[in-house]
Amino acid sequence: MTRRKLVAGNWKMHGSLAQLAELDAIAAAARANPQVDVAICPPFTLIAAAAARGDLTIGAQDSHQNEKGAHTGCVSAPMLREAGAKLVIVGHSERRTDQRESDAEVYAKARAVIAAGMIAIVCVGETEGERDAGRAAEVVERQLQGSIPADGTATQLVVAYEPVWAIGTGRTPTVGDVAAMHASIRTKLGDMLDAEAEGVRILYGGSVKPSNAAELMAVNNVDGALVGGASLTAADFVPIIEAAARA
Ligand SMILES: O=C(CO)COP(=O)(O)O
């Protein structure tokens, strides 16, 4: 099956109204490469302004699992949808660490995002210690088992494999290690989702840059990228979009 590649930028806690000017060239690159899906996930405060431009798919970086309620400081999936978000990252390792999010919470958030009519990008990935101990595949399989809704909503599901030790470090796994992990994720998704697993895109994330994007995007079962630092400027992000388009 051919899966459309998705290149999504995660701005994390970066950006400003002024920085939305970067979206001019990013949206132009998205238009010039229609075979690739492109999205930017800015902080909550910028979602509405970014989406109002109308020229680029905009997402969010987290969602509460409930639709509404007494949860000071939180934002729900229907609120994100109303602001213009089309997809939501859930279970990023920074939230699993900083906010101590469990697989069960990530599962609930993914379900909320899907129920609100958006795409959930569910992040998984091992720490360096887990990889060194030979447990990377086992850890990722456990995260998938606990965080992925397996109830017939696979068309709104994307998985992002982000090895924690590769995020923001400039280090990446070997192409062989990425291929092995993405194949093992595909197999696990097959166990959980049956035939629908073939349509689920598996993104690679962690120090994706213009210089390594082409080789990463060419790996079997790599259906795009979740990009942090290199998504903050069009100068870095556009070549990654172009590499995905050529892969
Ligand atoms: O965490 C990431 C995307 O969600 C990856 O971040 P970097 O691309 O900055 O390594």
Question: In terms of topology, how is this protein built?
Answer:
Elements: E1 5-10, H1 22-32, E2 36-41, H2 44-52, E3 57-60, H3 77-83, E4 87-90, H4 93-98, H5 103-115, E5 119-124, H6 128-132, H7 136-147, E6 157-161, H8 175-193, E7 201-205, H9 213-217, E8 224-227, H10 234-246
Parallel strand pairs: 1-2, 1-8, 2-3, 3-4, 4-5, 5-6, 6-7, 7-8
Helix pairs in contact: 1-10, 5-7, 7-8
Kindly describe this structure.
The protein has helices at 22-32, 44-52, 77-83, 93-98, 103-115, 128-132, 136-147, 175-193, 213-217, 234-246; strands at residues 5-10, 36-41, 57-60, 87-90, 119-124, 157-161, 201-205, 224-227. It has 247 residues and is α/β, with parallel strands linked by helices. It has a single domain, classed as TIM Barrel, CATH 3.20.20.70. Strands 1-2-3-4-5-6-7-8 form an 8-stranded parallel barrel, surrounded by 7 helices. Strand 6, helix 8 (175-193) and strand 7 form a beta-alpha-beta unit. Helix 5 crosses helix 7 (136-147). The protein is globular, with a radius of gyration of 17 Å. Bound molecules: 1,3-dihydroxyacetonephosphate (13P). The site of 1,3-dihydroxyacetonephosphate (13P) has 14 residues, from strand 8. GO terms for molecular function: triose-phosphate isomerase activity.
